[in-house]
Design brief:
The chain has a domain at 144-229. The chain contains eleven helices and no strands. The chain is 61% helix and 0% strand. The longest helix is centred in the last third of the chain and has 20 residues, at 212-231. The protein has 238 residues and is an all-alpha fold. The protein has helices spanning 40-52, 59-70, 78-90, 94-106, 113-125, 129-140, 149-161, 165-176, 185-197, 201-210, 212-231. Helix 1 (40-52) packs antiparallel against helix 2 (59-70) and helix 4 (94-106) runs antiparallel to helix 5 (113-125).
Amino acid sequence: MLQSSTQFPKNPTINDPTSQTPIKDIQTIPQLPIGQNVPRKDKITFLVNSLTDILDNNKEAVYSTLDAWVAWERDFPIGALKNVILALEKENQWHRIIHVIKWMLSKGQGTTRGTYGQLIEALDKDHRFDEANDVWKRKLGFDLHSVPWKLCKLMISVYYRNKKFEELVRLFEGLEGFDRKPPERSIVQKVADAYEMLGLLEEKGRVVEKYKDLFDEKLKRKMGRARSAHNRKPGQKK
């Protein structure tokens, strides 16, 4: 009887008898979850494009897009979402940023002062002052002893743009109550302007006098640059 000339390997594999990987070793091959092999940058770009393509810009559509995007992630992609928010900021997509942040907070993620600051800024840029003020008072403004000056400066600017001068000086006086000195001249200038708009000229003078060193420092820097330029030899590089 003739014997078949076909020779099977000693360690055949699934669906491919010519493969070099034995069946017993199949389980050792790492199986990547769907989407895991997609570069992070491409994931962020995809989500930004998906969000900006939502024509009606409604909450449900944005939330559904975000839910689908994170469905295959093993861990909540907080870092990637922060990059998404930054990308949307560059395109002035404030309404979508609000939805993204609120969705993230609804998942119990990103509950930091920085996130609430981003939400306040987006609400203000989206002409939703009352909501921005509510977030400030509920999440940040109750702790003027420790809330960072960066966020205080943000809220002072929000009050200033919206002509809420009484709220502005109340916030500043609350910070003064904790002996917190403003780090920038621009903050003092807004406070002084607010006092003036309220007809409180004595208070304006008090603030300007109390923090005059901030104004003097700017003048000194300007004079220093002028002096350096004057003393520089002709043809000498800056």
